[in-house]
Amino acid sequence: MTNPFVKHLPRAVQFSQWLIQSRVGPGDTVVDATVGNGHDTLFLAKLVGPEGSVLGFDIQESAIATTREKTASLPQVALHHAGHEEIGTYLEDSAKAAMFNLGYLPGNEKHIITLPDSTIAALGQMAERLLPGGMITIAVYTGHPGGPEEGRAVKDWAEALDQTCFSVIEYGFVNQKNSPPSLIAIERK
């Protein structure tokens, strides 16, 4: 992936992928904590290759089904119809990266959303299992009911991480309408 800053400031999801690509390579284990429509799952599968492993999670069967169709020929992808707070049940060892896209599944029911308690639990489990040099990216959507509260909880959690173990950045547009997503990225030192 080319540098996303060359022509214009990248959107949060573009920047997230650029950061992840800078850390992840063939053979790595990674997590898509919210598979949604499968875009990040495919992106991660290409990065880790057939010798790597992608664990994907979603509470909506429709998200798992859509992503299963897109990744049917990719043996490195294991999808789990489970909330991301169950990452620790399926990821017994460590991982190089994790991607979170919070909020609701685009094109689906807007009342089914990620929630602060389960998201913070999932982030805590990922932080414990993140390899040195690894990264967690969190696209935070606040333009829906419950989004601002979850965004605040995630930011508070990230700000409290021990700076001797983690570096945390926040990226987002501050002058755009319609609450564009922001990005929080966490690097394990």
Query: With helices defined by DSSP (H or I, 4 residues minimum), what is the helix count?
Result: 6
- Main β-sheet description: 7 strands, mixed
Give the overall pLDDT as a whole number. Answer: 94
Uncertain residue segments? none
Query: In angstroms, what is the radius of gyration?
Result: 15 Å
Within the largest sheet, what's the order of strands?
A: 3-2-1-4-5-7-6
Structural class: alpha/beta
**Percent helix range:** 25-40%
Number of strands: 7
Strand content: 15-25%
Q: Helix-strand pattern, N to C?
A: HEHEHEHEHEHEE
Using the alpha-carbon principal axes, give the shape: globular
Gap between N and C termini: 24 Å
Overview of the molecule:
The chain has six helices and seven strands. It is globular and about 40 Å long. It has helices at 12-21, 39-48, 61-70, 87-90, 116-129, 147-159; strands at residues 29-32, 53-58, 77-81, 95-101, 130-140, 166-171, 182-188. Strand 4 (95-101), helix 5 (116-129) and strand 5 (130-140) form a beta-alpha-beta unit. The protein has 189 residues and is an alpha/beta fold. Helix 5 (116-129) packs parallel to helix 6.
